[in-house]
Structures are given as C-alpha cells and as structure tokens.
C-alpha cells in the first residue's frame, strides 16, 4: 500500500478516557458540571427520562460526546440506525376483523382419527400381502385329482393332490449370460432352479401319446443315463435290483434292457398289474412332467404328505 499524506504523519497518541470518580446521575437541583466537569460523559442538553411523571429518574447510560453517534438520541438507539429495510408487519390472523378461532379438537377425537387411519392402512396392507401370497402360491402350487387305480394302494381314485410345479423349473443360463459380461456359464445350457425329478418322486405328467388330453400320475423309476431292465417283475438299474416297498402286488413280466436318454425319465405306476406307463409308451420327456406331488388334502383320511418314497438298491452280488 502506498503511503498517503495522512499515513506519513505521525499519528497522535490516543487519549485515554478517564472515568469520573464521583459521577452519579443528574438530579434536579444539581450543578450541571457536578461529577463531569469536562462534559465528556453528559451533554449539556441531556434530558434525563423518568420512568413515570413525578417519579425517580431512569438509569442513564454513560456516553462520551466525543464518541456519540449522531443517530443515537437521548432515549437510546433509533430505528434509523438499524441495518436493512423495515417494512410494516402483516397483521396477525387474530387481529383481522371477523376472525373466529377454530374450535380446538379434543384429544379423544384426534386419537380416534389417528387410530382409524392406522387401522385402514393395516387392512389395506394385509389385503395386498394376501393377494401377493395367493398369486405366488397359485403360480407354484396346483391341485390335481387322481383318476383310475394305477397308483393303488398308494393313491386312491378321486384323491386330491397338491402339486409343486415350480420345483422342476429350468432356466436358460446362456440367455442370461448374454446380458452379463465376462461370464461363461459353461455346460449345460439349461439348468434346474432347484433340482430335476428324482427316483421315487410321485409326479403329474401330460400323457405322452398324441391325442390323449388327460394327465397321468406316476412314480419316477429310471433317471437319465440309467440302464434299466425288468426281469420277472423285478426292476434292475445298472445291474442292481431295485427294492420297492410301495409295490404291493408284483408284476411278473419282463422288459429288455434299455438306456434312458438325456432329459428322459422312466415312470411306472405302483399298481404294476393295472397301469399304463413307460413299459407301454417308453421313457417320457421332462417337458411333459408338470410337477411333484407334495401333499394329499382329500379325503380327510388321506390328508398329509404325499408318499414320495425313494427305493433302495439291493446289495451288489
């Protein structure tokens, strides 16, 4: 900063203000110079305000006339000294003509209103949740009626079953991998979400013969890749005899050995002497299998879990 004329001069030392030792507020009859002979703290034209007419004088703030701001009056700081613009305040609602205060709501009425809203909200949420659960269950669980005696005595004619149609669902991982970068799903391209049909499962399947519209209920006996043959009614899987406790009446027939292809299943009824199954129409494709029987719900005497029973293999010779 370049020095100016003022800065080049030696500043005068700041005078120290001394408080008068015997100063006290002016009262009527006092000498004007009493307590402040130099007139630094009380101006000559100062008028001391009083709290009430004829009452004692109000306390006076000390002020130095040499440092007294012109916008400050005897009564204190004026409104003009305040920063910013001052606009008149809008009248309060209770000051307007014709204003009537709203009746105060009773706490009991307010509590009833809140309780009613919460109850309505809970009812709506419960209804939406029930609809969502119903649609989810309806999409995954279906009911079927057993027709015929091919599964006697495990399942009776007219028995109602709940079938899980989501258990054997498949997904195309290659189609998903097209949308996921740097992911090689490998083989196979289609995979089960949970698992495929297992040996001993009671399944519902569409009739594999063209023109037959009805569904069948059978038990899974052979899986893809198995070598299956039947000799004197005994089923052999990969050279080992299958012990089937659910078969109550044995079948004495034979079936030459065959190898079950990929995605194919060999199904049979528990009533081997009165069942049209894979012994007649061969292994069935997995696409024809609707789902697995999970429970029986009618008649009441048969209510409970479906008798899915995995057969055991006889000891190797």
Task: Offer a quick outline of the entry.
With 317 residues, the protein is of the alpha+beta class.
Topology overview:
Layout: H1 5-8, E1 72-73, E2 76-77, H2 107-140, E3 141-145, E4 160-164, E5 170-172, H3 173-177, E6 190-192, E7 202-206, E8 215-222, E9 227-231, E10 234-237, E11 240-243, E12 255-259, E13 264-268, H4 278-281, E14 284-285, E15 289-298, E16 304-305, E17 312-313
Antiparallel strand pairs: 1-2, 3-4, 4-15, 5-6, 7-8, 7-15, 8-13, 9-10, 9-12, 10-11, 11-17, 13-14, 15-16
The number of E-state strands comes to 17
| N/C terminus separation | 112 Å
Q: Low-confidence parts, pLDDT < 50 over ≥5 residues? A: 46-52, 57-72, 81-89
Overall 3D form: elongated
Top CATH class of the domain at 142-167 and 196-313: Mainly Beta
Mean pLDDT across residues: 76
- Tell me the strand percentage band: 15-25%
Major sheet size, sense and barrel closure: 8 strands, antiparallel
Radius of gyration: 51 Å
The CATH topology annotation of the domain at 142-167 and 196-313 reads as Umud Fragment, subunit A
Please identify which CATH superfamily of the domain at 142-167 and 196-313 we are dealing with.
Umud Fragment, subunit A
The percent of residues in helical segments reads 10-25%
* Tally of helical runs: 4
Q: Provide the succession of SSEs.
A: HEEHEEEHEEEEEEEEHEEEE
- Assign the CATH architecture of the domain at 142-167 and 196-313: Ribbon
Mind explaining what this structure looks like?
This protein is of the alpha+beta class. It has four helices and 17 strands. It has helices at 5-8, 107-140, 173-177, 278-281; strands at residues 72-73, 76-77, 141-145, 160-164, 170-172, 190-192, 202-206, 215-222, 227-231, 234-237, 240-243, 255-259, 264-268, 284-285, 289-298, 304-305, 312-313. It is elongated and about 130 Å long. The protein has a domain at 142-167 and 196-313: Umud Fragment, subunit A (Ribbon). It is 15% helix and 23% strand. A hairpin with a 2-residue loop joins strand 9 (227-231) and strand 10.
